[in-house]
Amino acid sequence: AQSVTQPDIHITVSEGASLELRCNYSYGATPYLFWYVQSPGQGLQLLLKYFSGDTLVQGIKGFEAEFKRSQSSFNLRKPSVHWSDAAEYFCAVGAGSDSWGKLQFGAGTQVVVTP
Amino acid sequence: GAGVSQSPSNKVTEKGKDVELRCDPISGHTALYWYRQRLGQGLEFLIYFQGNSAPDKSGLPSDRFSAERTGESVSTLTIQRTQQEDSAVYLCASSRRDRLTDTQYFGPGTRLTVL
Fold first, then answer.
1. Does the distance separating the beta carbons of B44 and A96 come in below 8 Å?
2. B45: nearest CB among A4, A96, A102
3. Ordered structural domains, chain A, with CATH
4. Which residues of B touch A92 (CB under 8 A)?
5. For B5-100, CATH number?
6. Residue range A98-110: average pLDDT?
7. Which of B100, B103, B106 to mutate to test the interface with A (most CBs of A within 10 A)?
8. Residue A54: closest CA among A43, A64, A39, A44
9. Sorting pLDDT into bands at 50, 70 and 90, what band is B1?
10. Residues A60-77: tens digit of each pLDDT
């Protein structure tokens, strides 16, 4: 069974600084990987996803993530954060292309942006 | 509206009462998912529907939980004899098909508090 670990429960970052959120997964084959963001009072929104191909994936809102098979990681990055990036971020893994859309989510990382 | 909607947004109930949570998916989406998000935790899969059928109910925590979907549209999650541990945000998502390659769009959730 697949699993997802987000080691950082809470991160504080200054506006304009770079941000990196860590995600480690456990899965035997090539996983399908996702990052979602949950803003206060909002539903989860998909930031980006990785299925295959180029291991550096670009998403919405200026986010990118890199799949590293050797490290079983799929870390999310943003070069310069904006106050509106304050939210909770969830990494998720799916079992594979022939599987239906069941996702295993990490516990989330809360991001606080300071002026 | 174009998104997934859920009602009520908040529900406070007394232990032992039954509750019904409603999800209206995006029109034309054949797959519908229910997740539970306990405080400080990631999303936990409950059940999913393809059309009106539920091929995977493996995440339902107990026989107090049930769900149905009618007209390949609205879904209702019912919790009977609620317990305090049922307190959580219940999230619904829909996707065009039940494949990982199809983005899941989430509703804003129903926050359930059991006193």
1. no
2. A102
3. 3-114 (2.60.40.10)
4. 43
5. 2.60.40.10
6. 83
7. B100
8. A64
9. low
10. 999 999 999 999 999 999
